[in-house]
Design brief:
This protein is of the alpha/beta class and 440 residues long. It has three domains: 54 residues, 2-Layer Sandwich (Alpha-Beta Plaits); 273 residues, 3-Layer(aba) Sandwich (Rossmann fold), CATH 3.40.50; 88 residues, Electron transport complex subunit B, putative Fe-S cluster (3-methyladenine DNA Glycosylase II, Chain A, domain 3). Helices cover 41% and strands 10% of the residues. The protein has 17 helices and eleven strands. The strands form four sheets. A four-stranded parallel sheet has the order 6-5-8-9, with helices on both faces. The longest helix is centred in the C-terminal third of the chain and has 20 residues. The protein starts with 7 loop residues before the first strand and ends with a helix. The relative contact order is 0.14.
Length: 440
Amino acid sequence: MTAYFHSVQLDEEKCRGCTNCIKRCPTEAIRVRQGKARIDNARCVDCGQCIRACPSRAKSVHTDSRSVLMDYKYTVALPAPTFFAQFYSDLSVGKMMAAVKLFGFTHVRGLFQAASLVSVAIAKHLAVTEGPFPRISTSCPAVVRLIQVRFPFLTEHLVPIEAPMEVAAYLARADVQRETGCLDEEIGVFFVSPCPAKVTAVHQPVGVGKSLLNGAFSMGDVYSDAFRLLSAVTEEEPVVGSARGLAWARSGGEGEAVAIDDYLAVDGIDHVIAVLEEVELGRLTNIRYIEGQACVGGCVGGVLVVENPFVARARLARLSQRLPKEDAPSAELPAEVLELKQSLGPRPFLQLDNDVDIALQKLGQLEEIVAKLPMLDCGSCGAPHCRALAEDIVRGNATLTDCDFMLRARVTDLAQELLALTRQLPQTMSQSRKSGEEEL
């Protein structure tokens, strides 16, 4: 079985088994058993919805410790574009980058240039590809994993282009090596992430490839220190890139940067699912490109950001006015840098059995169980809905009486059986029978 890394972690001591998380998980990856939540690693896409839903703060994001910086001679910070929308509006991007550098990095680079290069690569791909359409962005790892888990037949729609953070890592490594003459293994490149999905993508990319990044930090943690260190900044960092790259921080920015008309931007995991269902039914073939982002508003709405996403979006608009509209001419990157190195096939997890005949039998059992259940989808059984409980029962992970309604019906049946047996007692025990009936 494949071992999956997940940045979303559960603290069982804090979990109260409230079932809020099971109702919000888009891939039905969570169950509540013995009063505690359980996460199915094969289904989890690290979207962070359970973190938002948990009133006990039992879910959190595991990111790298600052001590990991000591493992490298040179360290590079790559703040996601939305990082610059966390600060008040009159700060320059160069000053914000300088404050990040004081966090403990030897270098800091933005993702603006990389995002622009990826935009060009996507535009070229759309110009020559024969489909299938619509093509779907791979920039949001939560959406990519969602497709692998819940919409496996749509994996062939994913564009084979690397995400900007991987391209930025390549550019940063080349830049530092050119500047210092050091070996590649002496460089540590770290992403400042707005969400758990991108933390996971650093440690375990969406396919089988290896990331050029060495770790990821929480945007909230880096922001806290950078904000405190702003007063210590004496010299701003140079900014390479344009407003075109900065736009990737919000929903719709990627499509605008790719510069096509027939594209669709959708944000929020529930809205993304609704659109993917339309694609699966073949209703959106007139759309050439879909930019889907799991968080509301795009990366500005990530779990690890500190600013309100609507405020952040307004700040991005103001910051864009201070950056060049177009990128300065630069050498083209080798095709292998921009091409996706991972295999983006479906993620196998729903097999009822390795033997096809047995799997079909279990599928029949599943349907029989579903017919018995009340189909109220209340979640009191610890599964998100009745069909999920039926699947758990077939897999041997639950029983029919985990359903409160079925348990109540079973108790009623047992009581009726006991009452009937009591009435059949010999007449010499009539007094005991009467007492028994009164108790029942």
